[in-house]
Amino acid sequence: MHQELVEVARTMACAAGSLGAVYGMRALGILGQYPKDAEGKDYTPLAHIGDADETLAEVIEYLGVIAGKLGNVYVETVRSPGLAVARCPEAMQIVLANLRNALKELDAEGASRYVRSAGEAGEVREDIARNVAYLEALEQRVCPRAQVPAQAGPSAEDVVAAIRRDPAIARAASAALSERED
């Protein structure tokens, strides 16, 4: 479990770095960087920044891998059935929601254009939809909703109405509140 979470964190860092590079390059109007020396040959000591569309296609793959690994982390076992539930469901809901939003944003931006052929474009859109659905199902499984118990007795509105309607109830409520302050 620990090793898979470490891999998720590393993959997430790589995806975030790639997205930052692509969107930063776009903001600066740079479409790609292929370092060359004075003679036009590849200059290997400098980093190669590939095509932005290819990088975004890789990020889509990374997000799919992250979704799968998170699903593997939260698998119920016979000895440890509690492993299938997140310790901090609120934080995990944020993580899963952000992963879904990232996939949806890449899809809305036109993820299908990140690949070379029309067949691959359909596959990319299907992968995104499948991963979004998987993340939604994972959230339902891993982050159970807390059941709010039904309120016994009158509602807050009923109490306020009773205080306004009957001066004796208003005096009793006032006395109870003043005792509570002491």
Description:
- The chain is elongated, with a radius of gyration of 27 Å.
- The protein has 2 domains: about 1-140, no CATH class; about 150-180, no CATH class.
- The protein has 6 helices and no strands.
- By secondary structure, the protein is mainly α.
- The mean pLDDT is about 80.
Number of helices: 6
Task: Kindly report how far apart the N and C termini lie.
Answer: 52 Å
Instruction: Provide mean pLDDT, rounded.
Output: 79
Uncertain residue ranges: none
Sheet/helix structural class: mainly alpha
Amount of beta strand: under 5%
Written as H for each helix and E for each strand, in order along the chain, the element string is HHHHHH
| Extended strand count | 0
Largest sheet: none
Number of domains: 2
The gross shape turns out to be elongated
Rg, Cα atoms, Å: 27 Å
Helix percentage range: 55-70%
Blueprint of the fold:
Elements: H1 2-28, H2 52-73, H3 89-109, H4 118-142, H5 156-165, H6 167-181
Helix pairs in contact: 1-2, 2-3, 2-4, 3-4, 5-6
What's this entry about, in short?
The protein is 66% helix and 0% strand. The protein is an all-alpha fold.
List keywords for this structure.
2 domains, 6 helices
